[in-house]
Amino acid sequence: MKRIAIFASGTGSNAKKILAHFQSSNKVQVVLIVSNKPTAGVLNFANEYSVPTLLLERERFVNGDGYVSALQSAGIDWIILAGFLWKIPPILVKHWEKRIINIHPALLPNYGGKGMYGEAVHQAVITANEKESGITIHYVDEQYDHGTTIFQATCPVLPADTPASLANRIHTLEHLHYPVVIEKEILSQVD
């Protein structure tokens, strides 16, 4: 059984889809929800699915041990980012190299990097008059939105789109693909 931790900062809609997807799996189990916000909606889903939580303190996460010992104590094999807004520190990347997966709401390498999340991404795509956008599921390395791409899916950008309307189509892609791609990637690397 592979044990995963989901890192999330917000409402947790992707985390909920991942929790539901793996709820009855005999190969992958969500064993920890990690957040940097004590009021994050994702913590409600952790409670709903009876998954323990870990709240991060910024200084320890960024400049300290990165919570490596806590994650190792929980037996974490994989880290899944689902709307987690802090950069992953090098110590975590080193300990879980090629075992940290993120989803980005645009087609990388475009529209990624520091500050490119949520509405900012969708506004940038619309402002650039792109004809399509989508999602990129990728490995995490030491740079924002830079690691090896695992999967991309696209959707049209419509002439009347707003950041909110584009975000709705992006969320549909995220919810459809992210849990399945995570499972496929984890099971393809079973030792």
Q: Main β-sheet, in a few words? A: 7 strands, mixed
Mean pLDDT: 96
Rg from alpha-carbon coordinates:
16 Å
List how many beta strands DSSP finds.
Answer: 7
- CATH-level-2 architecture: 3-Layer(aba) Sandwich
CATH topology: Rossmann fold
Can you identify the CATH class?
Answer: Alpha Beta
Strand order of the largest sheet: 3-2-1-4-5-6-7
Q: How would you describe the shape? A: globular
Can you tell me about this structure?
With 191 residues, the protein is an alpha/beta fold. It has a single domain, classed as Formyl transferase, N-terminal domain (Rossmann fold), CATH 3.40.50.170. It is 37% helix and 22% strand. The protein is built from seven helices and seven strands. Strands 3-2-1-4-5-6-7 form a seven-stranded mixed β-sheet, with helices on one face. Helix 1 packs parallel to helix 7 and helix 6 crosses helix 7. The chain is globular, with a radius of gyration of 16 Å. The model has no long low-confidence stretch (mean pLDDT 96).
What secondary-structure arrangement, pairings included, does this model have?
Layout: E1 2-7, H1 13-22, E2 28-35, H2 42-48, E3 53-55, H3 58-63, H4 68-73, E4 78-81, H5 90-95, E5 100-104, H6 119-127, E6 132-139, E7 149-156, H7 163-188
Parallel strand pairs: 1-2, 1-4, 2-3, 4-5
Antiparallel strand pairs: 5-6, 6-7
